Fold this sequence. Notes:
Chain A contains no helices and eleven strands.
Amino acid sequence: xxxxxxxxxxxxxxxxxxxxxxxxxxxxxxxxxxxxxxxxxxxxxxxxxxxxxxxxxxxxxxxxxxxxxxxxxxxxxxxxxxxxxxxxxxxxxxxxxxxxxxxxxxxxxxx
Amino acid sequence: xxxxxxxxxxxxxxxxxxxxxxxxxxxxxxxxxxxxxxxxxxxxxxxxxxxxxxxxxxxxxxxxxxxxxxxxxxxxxxxxxxxxxxxxxxxxxxxxxxxxxxxxxxxxxxxxxxxx
Lengths: 111, 116
């Protein structure tokens, strides 16, 4: 079963706006990662945040992690049409290297 | 980071037949993973494949249906056996590679399987 849920399930915004996606998980983790998937293709690793980190930045991406609430958020600033994709959070549970994925958010950025 | 070549990219198969999916990594990796993504859904782990040992399957997946080979540290195959339309999915392989203080994962481009 899925480790967690993401919301919203779908998000439609205009180019230039910010997009925020949220992820919740259920068990203790070593780290949490975000991936992007374009049109059912392979996943691309975006960013990894360790369980002892609270915030991390990479270009236009900002990720936060709240282990007390077992939740994370991904912020994409100044979105572009090319950001249109599905975004998944994933965790590797303590003692396991395999990833467990959230339900995903489908982001549509209108030009 | 590592690059994974996965093939075939897509296939349409008759029910009752089998399909073998191959993944080649351009560097040696310890662990490889196989996932299934049903239409419009998230990814579900099928099994973990280590070189030199039998794959470890997740609940709901069995070796007879999804035999996996891992002959060396750069290659793995997944076979979908005795296929039915319910097996229509995207199948993805991945490998763990050091990224950003932890182990990020590199994915193959996926195999889109349609069973008719």
